[in-house]
Write a structure and sequence with these properties.
Protein name (chain A): Division initiation protein
Pfam family, one (chain A): DUF881
Radius of gyration of chain B: 16 Å
Number of strands of chain B: 0
Order of helices and strands of chain A: HHHEHEEEEEEHHE
Shape of chain A: rod-shaped
Mean pLDDT of chain A: 78
Keywords (chain A): Coiled coil, Membrane, Transmembrane, Transmembrane helix
Helix content of chain A: 40-55%
Family (chain A): Belongs to the UPF0749 family.
Order of helices and strands of chain B: HHHH
Distance between the termini of chain B: 21 Å
Oligomer: heterodimer
InterPro entries (chain A): DUF881 (IPR010273)
Number of helices of chain B: 4
Shape of chain B: globular
Mean pLDDT of chain B: 85
CATH superfamily of one domain in chain A: Protein of unknown function DUF881
Number of strands of chain A: 8
Low-confidence stretches of chain B: none
Low-confidence stretches of chain A: 1-22
Largest sheet of chain A: 5 strands, antiparallel
Helix content of chain B: over 70%
CATH topology of one domain in chain A: Alpha-Beta Plaits
CATH architecture of one domain in chain A: 2-Layer Sandwich
Largest interface: A-B, 38 and 45 residues
Number of domains of chain B: 1
Amino acid sequence: MVKLSSWTKHSGKSRINDASGSVNDETATGSFPVIRKKPPRLVEGSRMARLLSSLLIAVLCASLGWGYVIQLNNSTSIYETMSEEELTRLIGETSTQAQSLQQRKTELSNQLNMLQEAANKQQEAQRIAKQNEQTSGLLSGRLPATGKGVVITIDRGSRQRVDASTMFQLLEELRNAGVEVMELNDVRIVTSTYIDDTKNGLICDGKNISAPYTLKAIGDPQNLQNAVTIAGGVGSRLKVKFGSEVTVTPDDNIEISKTRQPSQYKYAKTIE
Amino acid sequence: MAAVLGLIIGVIVGIFVKPDIPIVLQPYLPIMVVAALDALLGAARSYFERSFSDRVFIISFISNVLTATLLVLLGNQLGVGSQLQTAVIVVLGIRIFSNVSAIRRFIFKG
């Protein structure tokens, strides 16, 4: 009985304790930290020792702040703090990258060279084609021409009419002298031009022409003049045999506007 | 009080005085700072718990910094410096987070 009462007394006391504790303490969950009373100082230090520890705390915190700011302002290269392996790996990576970039550069510059070459080739081909077009155009009579040369006039022969073979000889002499473009009485002289006799004149490429003949020739004026007026040449033959007046006038600006359509080649093909 | 004062003084001194940290010490400075921060936050927590002891704080501060530095140094010597550095940072970061959450509870529970 005594024992029992002591039990109840004990439990009652503890309940009272619990009740007093639950007024401002909610430690039931156990997960929240308990605010304890400030424990009594274990070793009661002297005033000097407390000041010293405060000072030490201040110094430590100061060193923390100092270190933080220093690290914040630390702008030195990160490579200095890297280990040897990291640096080796980094150098390997970098050199591999540089190598691949170099390779890419070589490839691209090769491509560029090829493209430039191709462009140059095309340009060259275009230039040659244009030149050929001009040359063949002048040669075939497709293009009008201008330049310095001579104008040769042959009037009606006093003894007999100028015949086709002599006229053709004149053309051949001029060709030998390096004539480039010719026109005889409004007929463009090309490689296929023919001259034949008619009853009262000449026929040149299907067109009747009669004296006086006017032959415009573009070429070196001196050479052309020499070719006609050379002693024993076609000029003197015209004078002596046919009695016609031959005048050769050099001109710096001869214009030959007569053109003709080039014939379409039916059988001949170029060899590639 | 002394801690806050010390922090302010340290930051000001750090802004104006910029010494050249020796190269040997450079990799350890960030670890030291983080360890010290952890110690400081632990102290703050114990302050809120009313169990702050300046002696414990000083010893924990110094031992934190020294342990972190020595651990990284050991890692460097063993060739796992960067990994161990990461490990130390992670552990200290976890501790900082738990300290901060404890402090937060004290502040917002009143």
